[in-house]
Design a protein that fits this description.
With 170 residues, the chain is α+β, with helices and mostly antiparallel strands. The protein is built from five helices and four strands. The mean pLDDT is 87.
């Protein structure tokens, strides 16, 4: 019985020495640093169009004492997905790469309370209808209010304040 124990101890020590002797370069593949190929050029690009920027500024003025306003926010960053295993992965895959035009965040709770999506007014293509449906279902499940605005419509600050529920009536 002692021989078995001694044999296991020796095998364990050999295994430890072998693991420690492996060089760091033969470790997991994902640890390599990213190097931009010389043939690739990166340049900054505008985050918002002129129309979007105008609307952003109007929204910011309308809600300035009530909310923080963020533009071009990924859907997954404003919801917490609480599920196990495959269910969580499926939901995250479902909402991946979905982008919200504007998000109104309560400065105290730091949680998104309202989301603004821009409706171009054109008949939407089928993929856009599916995208909006997914966004709407996630926001509804999370209890986040969705507001749709037309970017080429003229809004006043009081109109937007009323739309977001922060007008003088409150």
């Amino acid at each position: 019985m002692e021989n078995v124990f001694i044999g296991l101890a020796i095998a364990f020590l050999v295994f430890l020495i072998w693991r420690l002797s492996i060089s760091p370069t033969t470790g997991p593949v994902g640890k390599e640093s990213f190097v931009l190929p010389p043939s690739v050029t990166l340049r900054p690009q505008p985050l918002l169009t002129d129309t979007d920027l105008l609307l952003y500024n109007l929204i910011r003025l309308a809600v300035e004492d009530h909310y923080l306003v963020f533009a071009r926010v990924p859907l997954w960053s404003i919801v917490s997905v609480e599920a196990e295993g495959k269910a969580r992965s499926q939901v995250l895959r479902h909402i991946a790469l979905k982008q919200l035009d504007f998000v109104l965040v309560h400065p105290g709770t730091k949680a998104a309370e309202q989301v603004v999506l821009l409706d171009e007014g054109l008949p939407p293509q089928s993929h856009e209808v599916i995208r909006r449906g997914k966004i709407q279902s996630v926001l509804k499940a999370a209890g986040i209010k969705l507001i749709t605005l037309k970017p080429h419509t003229s809004y006043t600050v009081p109109q937007l304040a009323q739309l977001f529920g922060v007008g003088d009536e409150e």
